[in-house]
Amino acid sequence: MSGETPKAPELQENRHGNSDAWAAEGGSSALHLVWQEAYECSDATIDGEHRELFVRANRLIDAAFRAEVAPGKLRSALDELLDHVQRHFTDEEAILAQLHYADLEQHKRSHAGLLRRPSFLKERAEAGEATLGAVVEFLAQDVVARHLMTVDRAFFPLFEKAAAR
């Protein structure tokens, strides 16, 4: 006896379970942004567009997860998300202008800065080098944590005042 514990042949040959087979077939990533009611400002347009942003962001995360298999889907999902974000920013700025938001100009600058950041992602996607980490960092940190949860929260009281009138 050599003292070694024999390993089952099926474990030696195939250490990947069914989950890996499913992922290889194009299943979605386990990593997703999750919408919460706490993100709502009470304006139907803004809230609906923010929810749609999460849907499109999750499509982009899924596409980044499968980028090696389908690089065109990553570029397409990124373009769709950026188109939505640009339309949303235009809509949001118009709504805030109607409510005479005092920090509107600063908010517009924040939007412009946020739109500049994904240009690097687009370049990497076009070169086939965009990483899941870069996509998630942009979406989770820049869009959700820094913008939606911080910058957008500053205008939420406008909708409380409008509802009280």
Would you kindly provide a written description of the structure presented here, covering whatever features stand out?
The chain has a single domain, classed as Hemerythrin-like (Four Helix Bundle (Hemerythrin (Met), subunit A), Up-down Bundle), CATH 1.20.120. Helix content is 68%, strand content 0%. It has eight helices and no strands. The chain has helices spanning 9-13, 18-24, 44-65, 71-98, 104-116, 118-126, 132-151, 156-164. Helix 3 (44-65) packs antiparallel against helix 4 (71-98) and helix 5 (104-116) packs antiparallel against helix 7. It is elongated, with a radius of gyration of 21 Å. The model is unreliable at 9-25 (pLDDT under 50).
Amino-to-carboxy terminus distance: 85 Å
CATH class: Mainly Alpha
The percentage of residues in β strands lies in under 5%
Give the structural class. mainly alpha
Main features:
single chain; 8 helices; mainly alpha; 165 residues; Four Helix Bundle (Hemerythrin (Met), subunit A)
Summarize the structure.
This protein has helices spanning 9-13, 18-24, 44-65, 71-98, 104-116, 118-126, 132-151, 156-164. The protein is mostly helical.
